Amino acid sequence: MKKIQLEILGLSSSQSQSGSFALILGEKHGNRRLPIIIGMFEAQSIAIQIEKINPNRPLTHDLFKSFAEQVHVTVLEVLISDLKEGVFYSKIVCSDGATTFDLDSRPSDAIAIGLRFGVPIYTVESVMGEAGIILSDLDDAADSDEDDDTDEDDDAGDETSSKPAAEPREPSGQVSTDELTKMLAQALEREDYEKAAKIRDELNNRNGTKE
């Protein structure tokens, strides 16, 4: 069974399912993309690991990692192994040093855990062949959307528009760095990781400007 290594390319709100998110995985040595719809909690858990944000309290996937380390089990890789009736299935490949074993998992949980262990994410050709999207197809669709947008008024956009949403007003460039630091601490305390990531990015941008 030939495995195809994947990398996380993006995470965004799903336009087709309210309250869900689209996780975009890309073929590491190819031009195919594998979109998977995941829940809000799993999306948050994946996002804060990607953004290197440390929550005040461990999330479920952090707890899994702590438990595994205590019993001397490590994760070797994540495999999106099957697609049945539109539902993805995956396995977390683990080892206790003597034996290797698989744990059945939803892809979203498997990826959130795999990120915490820093292991590669794979799929198989049967899954990629059925659900993968070729990059050139995405480019054609994007070009088509841009052409459609030119025929519409600027204020006629909606949630399905291909135009990027306006950047959030907060944090504003008028807010001081000290105030942003306080806002970051408050967002982490409230476990508002989405806002925390935006504030962190603003702080990083300012620090980069100063250097």
Q: What is the terminal-to-terminal distance? A: 49 Å
Helicity level, as a percent range? 40-55%
Strand order of the largest sheet: 6-5-4-7-1-2-3-8
Give the oligomeric state of the chains in this entry, treating copies of one chain as homo and distinct chains as hetero: single chain
| Number of strand segments | 8
Principal-axes geometry comes out as globular
Radius of gyration: 20 Å
Poorly predicted spans: 152-172
Q: What class do helices, strands and sheet pairing give?
A: alpha+beta
The whole-number mean of residue pLDDT values reads 80
Q: SSE order in H/E notation? A: EEEHHEEEHEHEHHH
Query: How big a fraction of the residues is strand?
Result: 25-35%
Main sheet?
8 strands, mixed
InterPro entries: BFN_sf (IPR036104), Bi_nuclease_dom (IPR003729), UVR_dom (IPR001943)
Organism: Hymenobacter koreensis
Protein name: Bifunctional nuclease family protein
Pfam families: BFN_dom, UVR
